[in-house]
Amino acid sequence: MEIRTSLLVSFLIHLTFFFFLIFNPWSGEEISEQIRLQLSKGQVPSLFFRLPQDEGKGLDSSKLGGLAGTPEAEIERFKNEIHYPPAALEQRLESDCSWEVEIGPEGLARRIKTVKSCKYPVFESHFKKSVSSWKFQLPEGKVIIIPVSFHIESDE
């Protein structure tokens, strides 16, 4: 294939991609409102992003497929945000634990009760610290059990 032909094919592919990027036929709003590329002759291109206003406020009920606001969805949402305690990671400690949490006003944990104790206290204190600042999307008075497995995955 000639170089001119390959450049023309490449140009047409890129042109098609940018057309769909700017005029997305599958979306209700144009992506151009979210991404803006500014080109000036003789300068480095500038790229600007605009995040949606509701970004970071948790998953929308439509994105959870009917599970939003259910205890199962809230447990998974919390478990996906809890981090491995650095002190336990350094020592390669592992444990399976469970807690019973009663939801209080404004979705905060009112009462935390250990159902299955951890082998090491570092997991217990880390969980209590994490859950005490978490805001659940469940009604006040609801009691849930949160099982957490602190395990290190390795390739060995």
From TrEMBL:
Keywords: Membrane, Receptor, Transmembrane, Transmembrane helix. Gene3D superfamilies: TonB. GO terms for biological process: transmembrane transport. PROSITE patterns: TONB_CTD (PS52015). The keyword Transmembrane helix applies. Residues 69-156 form the TonB C-terminal domain. It comes from the Bacteria. The keyword Cell inner membrane does not apply. The chain crosses the membrane at residues 7-26. This is TonB-dependent receptor.
